[in-house]
Design the sequence.
């Protein structure tokens, strides 16, 4: 609504005259006198229906005019009748507000459907001539909705009559001062005071006395106006007091005396003025109240129209001269809550008045730097939301205001844009013009999302953020689903078009996550989620969005679960997003192991699980399968044995809820790994893990590597293409990350070396790397190194490289770790036939030390390798290992009685190999599987054989006595029995020569064995040894008998 002329013939003068019976004089307006009102448009007619009184009954015509200098002239000349006639004559050519005529508030014309012509050529002229920065009438006329008549003419400064005399001014000042000092103030006195103030304000341009008086009483004036409004009933409109206050404030604003600005009282007055107008009941309610009271003849609807018109013109008077947009900023700040009011009539008034402010500002735009209005994005978004208001009147007013706001924005951006980058502004203007050729004002309120497309080209990053935040607030409007729908459309449209020009993205994400729980409509929820999808798909914002989404409690609530599972991302961006999420987790594995696990690791794991469940990023999941699988296996390793108390949870994260004891980092990692296998169609691998308790193995601290190996073997067997991708991924990554990272990666990598593809790997990534692991301080790496060498032995071309590692592998035989020794034996078995004699002899000595090892498998396979070594000895080298073979006979013989059947059987087999090496034929009793103590006669045969064969070669009795203290009961029992039997068949002279004390000493110790059978056999053996010691040798008796027979014959 354009402002009236501020001359003495303004429309508000007429309204005041109609509203009261107080006398006043209207000012002459030569420029408007007799001017015919322009034809009303459709939009004007709509405005009339909302803000004018059709067919309002006339009220009694005021008897005298009272207000301006004419009243003072009448008082001096005594001719009031002429003034009344002159006033009526002038009002005849104007629109009356309380007659059968309508109150016309000019709005947009019918040709609003036309697009705004950006006048690029005019902008170029402005660039050449900075003095022409202000809009001209021709510029304005090109914009639909603005009349062809120059608005400057209809909104010019007041055209004063001849300057009023000092006497008149003194009377006006006296009238105002009298009111200041008056205690009893009735309605007549109040209205007189306001009109005197208004008349006095018009003498400011030429009278210093008035200026001095006004400036010295600004505080008093503001205080009085504040009191006048406070005394007005808030829920009724029974007098023109509000209207007079608004007109008075407007008159001062015309003279650049702004009562609202410069003090706290003024700011409070401004807030009260807006509240007093906006919060009035609806017109229907006001009419009903008047019918009930019936105390005043005033027509409430007519009075309301006048008051609202005065209110709008008051607001417009603040922006007529607002080059820095400070006043606009203040108006919008105060109007903001009312524009979002839940009451329809309040929202309609605020929207209509704001639209008129914007229209006035666009008509009188004269911008200068610096600009104080920093809430453009908020204003655009709010007007756009109002264009989608369920109340049609609000939507139409907002659309008109938005139309004028676009004009303001274009000029504002031209003034503030970077002069060095003028081309970007031209592009923005061109894009805006193209869009406006498609859209018009009516489409703004029929489809508010068009506004986002039009304004987006002009908004900077800060303003875009304001737009988004304001739009997100619109999602809270649960009472009006259509407003929520508009907010969703605006949001998705702006984010889609603005691309990467946003700031404060974390704050935006925070609001979105908070708002999800309040949005019920599925379509709007999906629009909001799509907005997140657009943000996360922009490489500039991907990490920012993911970081914010990961800062929520796990397991995620149903709203965040829906967000993760329904991300709508274009195919080229899916891999990027999943990769960045994966990197969040991988970075936690690259740092040294800390006391507590990083919360990001747990949150990212749960996020991956939800993404897999949603299956919207399926293509990326297949592409990144190797990285995903290995990262999750490493996360499982890190999570073993941890609870949520072992996680570094950010402070304040679990404010309103407790951490569930059922949720652990390990269970989240396991479920994510399972889901990954299922989503990538690894059904058979999943089944193998289930059948072989692979998931339980993965969760175990000591058996985690077994679970990793099981999964790797299953993948290689069932899905070798994926397995090969994993192997190539791991080649450069095995030495990265912390120990758990390296161990899990190495375990998976080693299992994949079984593949024929492994032969293609360069030596530095295969044999050389495994060699390094053999010297690692962690036994797990030594195990993996030897295991990898075992798998590489399957590839013939790699055996020569592995053979060079034999000295290192031989050293592994002395390790305490059973797995290391067994793997070393397994490798050495492959190279026994090709070993040189020196290496072979050294290996046999190492193996002999393992005979009787408490680890059954080590004992057994050491004998196996020993037997294989004996077989591979060449004839020329047999003499060099004969003693080692002889020394092994007694241990092998005794261990045929081992309680472990596999060890006993292997002992008999290797003993047979040793006999073949020595070219002996063992008695069949050696191969008997029955215990010796049950068949003593067979033991005698064995003892007789070995006593005879080993005579002079090895002290088998001493070797046997070494096993009398063996930890195994069967071995101690066999040793005791063997000593007793062997003493019977040994050379007695040799036994006596060496003495039996050392034998008896060991046997006496066995008499204290906890096992009775051992004690019995030890006592029997001791008896036999002592008997041999005391009895003469049989050969000596024969010699003596021969001597005696020789004497007799002589």
Sequence:
């Amino acid at each position: 609504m354009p402002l009236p002329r501020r001359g003495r013939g303004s429309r508000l003068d007429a309204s005041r005259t109609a509203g009261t019976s107080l006398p006043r004089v209207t000012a002459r307006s030569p420029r408007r006198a007799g001017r015919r009102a322009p034809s009303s448009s459709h939009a004007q007619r709509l405005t009339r229906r909302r803000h004018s009184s059709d067919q309002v009954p006339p009220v009694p015509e005021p008897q005298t005019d009272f207000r301006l200098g004419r009243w003072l002239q009448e008082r001096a000349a005594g001719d009031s009748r002429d003034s009344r006639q002159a006033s009526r004559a002038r009002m005849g050519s104007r629109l009356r507000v309380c007659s059968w005529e309508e109150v016309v508030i000019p709005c947009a014309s019918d040709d609003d459907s036309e697009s705004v012509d950006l006048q690029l050529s005019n902008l170029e002229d402005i660039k050449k001539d900075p003095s022409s920065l202000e809009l001209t009438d021709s510029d304005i006329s090109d914009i639909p909705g603005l009349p062809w008549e120059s608005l400057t003419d209809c909104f010019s400064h007041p055209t004063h009559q001849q300057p009023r005399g000092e006497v008149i001014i003194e009377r006006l000042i006296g009238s105002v001062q009298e009111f200041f000092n008056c205690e009893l103030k009735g309605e007549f006195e109040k209205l007189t005071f306001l009109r005197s103030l208004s008349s006095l304000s018009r003498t400011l341009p030429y009278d210093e006395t008035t200026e001095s008086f006004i400036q010295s009483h600004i505080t008093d004036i503001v205080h009085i106006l504040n009191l006048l409004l406070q005394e007005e009933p808030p829920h009724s409109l029974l007098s023109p007091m509000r209207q007079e206050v608004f007109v008075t404030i407007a008159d001062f604003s015309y003279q650049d005396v702004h009562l609202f600005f410069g003090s706290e009282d003024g700011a409070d007055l401004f807030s009260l003025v807006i509240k007093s107008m906006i919060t009035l009941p609806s017109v229907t309610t006001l009419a009903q109240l008047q019918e009930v009271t019936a105390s005043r003849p005033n027509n409430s609807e007519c009075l309301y129209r006048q008051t609202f018109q005065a209110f709008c013109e008051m607001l417009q008077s603040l922006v007529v001269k607002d080059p820095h947009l400070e006043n606009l900023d203040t108006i919008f700040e105060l109007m903001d809550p009312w524009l979002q009011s839940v009451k329809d009539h309040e929202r309609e008034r605020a929207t209509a008045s704001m639209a008129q402010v914007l229209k006035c500002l666009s008509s009188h735009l004269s911008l200068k730097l610096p600009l104080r209005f920093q809430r453009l994005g908020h204003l655009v978004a709010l007007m756009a939301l109002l264009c989608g208001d369920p109340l049609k009147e609000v939507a139409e007013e907002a659309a008109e205001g938005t139309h004028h706001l676009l004009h303001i924005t274009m000029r504002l951006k031209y003034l503030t844009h970077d002069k060095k980058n003028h081309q970007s502004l031209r592009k923005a203007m061109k894009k805006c013009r193209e869009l406006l050729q498609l859209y018009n004002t009516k489409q703004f309120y029929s489809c508010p999302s068009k506004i986002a497309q039009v304004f987006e080209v002009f908004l900077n990053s800060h303003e875009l953020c304001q737009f988004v935040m304001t739009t997100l607030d619109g999602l809270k409007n649960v009472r009006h689903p259509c407003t929520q729908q508009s907010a969703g459309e605006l949001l998705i449209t702006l984010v889609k078009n603005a691309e990467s020009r946003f700031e404060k993205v974390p704050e935006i994400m925070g609001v979105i996550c908070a708002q999800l729980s309040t949005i019920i409509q599925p379509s709007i929820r999906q629009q909001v989620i799509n907005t997140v999808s657009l943000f996360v798909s922009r490489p500039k914002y991907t990490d920012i969005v993911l970081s914010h989404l990961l800062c929520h409690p796990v397991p995620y609530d149903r709203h965040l679960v829906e967000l993760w599972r329904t991300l709508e991302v274009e195919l080229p961006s899916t891999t990027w997003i999943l990769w960045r999420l994966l990197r969040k987790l991988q970075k936690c594995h690259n740092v040294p192991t800390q006391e507590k696990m990083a919360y990001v690791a747990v949150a990212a794991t749960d996020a991956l699980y939800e993404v897999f469940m949603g299956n919207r990023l399926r293509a990326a999941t297949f592409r990144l399968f190797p990285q995903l699988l290995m990262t999750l296996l490493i996360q499982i390793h890190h999570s073993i044995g941890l609870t949520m108390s072992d996680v570094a949870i950010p402070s304040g994260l679990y404010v309103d809820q407790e951490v569930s004891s059922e949720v652990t980092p390990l269970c989240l990692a396991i479920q994510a790994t399972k889901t990954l296998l299922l989503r990538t169609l690894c059904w058979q691998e999943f089944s193998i893990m289930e059948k072989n308790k692979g998931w339980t193995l993965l969760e175990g601290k000591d058996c985690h590597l077994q679970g990793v190996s099981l999964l790797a073997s299953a993948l290689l067997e069932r899905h070798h293409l994926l397995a090969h991708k994993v192997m190539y991924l791991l080649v450069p990554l095995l030495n990265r990350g912390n120990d758990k990272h390296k161990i899990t990666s190495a375990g998976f990598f080693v299992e994949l070396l079984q593949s024929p593809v492994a032969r293609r790997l360069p030596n530095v990534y295969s044999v050389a790397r495994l060699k390094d692991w053999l010297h690692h301080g962690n036994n797990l790496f030594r195990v993996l190194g030897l295991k990898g060498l075992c798998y590489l032995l399957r590839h013939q071309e790699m055996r020569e490289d592995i053979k060079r590692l034999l000295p290192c592998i031989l050293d592994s035989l002395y390790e305490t770790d059973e797995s290391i020794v067994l793997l070393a034996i397994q490798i050495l078995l492959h190279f026994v036939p090709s070993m040189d004699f020196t290496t072979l002899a050294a290996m046999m000595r190492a193996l002999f030390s393992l005979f009787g090892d408490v680890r059954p498998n080590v004992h057994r396979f050491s004998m196996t390798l020993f037997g294989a070594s004996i077989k591979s000895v060449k004839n020329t080298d047999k003499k060099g290992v004969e003693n080692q073979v002889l020394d092994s006979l007694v241990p092998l013989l005794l261990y045929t009685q081992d309680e472990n059947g596999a060890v006993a059987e292997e002992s008999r087999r290797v003993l047979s190999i040793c006999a073949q090496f020595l070219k002996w034929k063992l008695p069949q009793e050696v191969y008997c599987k029955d215990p010796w103590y049950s068949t003593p006669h067979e033991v005698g045969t064995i003892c007789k054989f070995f006593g005879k064969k080993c005579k002079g070669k090895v002290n088998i009795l001493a070797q046997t006595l070494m096993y009398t203290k063996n930890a195994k009961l069967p071995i101690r029992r066999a040793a005791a029995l063997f000593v007793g039997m062997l003493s019977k068949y040994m050379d007695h002279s040799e036994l006596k020569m060496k003495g039996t004390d050392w034998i008896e000493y060991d046997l006496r110790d066995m008499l204290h064995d906890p096992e009775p059978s051992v004690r019995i056999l030890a006592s029997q053996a001791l008896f036999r040894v002592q008997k041999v010691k005391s009895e003469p040798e049989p050969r000596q008796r024969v010699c003596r008998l021969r001597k005696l027979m020789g004497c007799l014959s002589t």
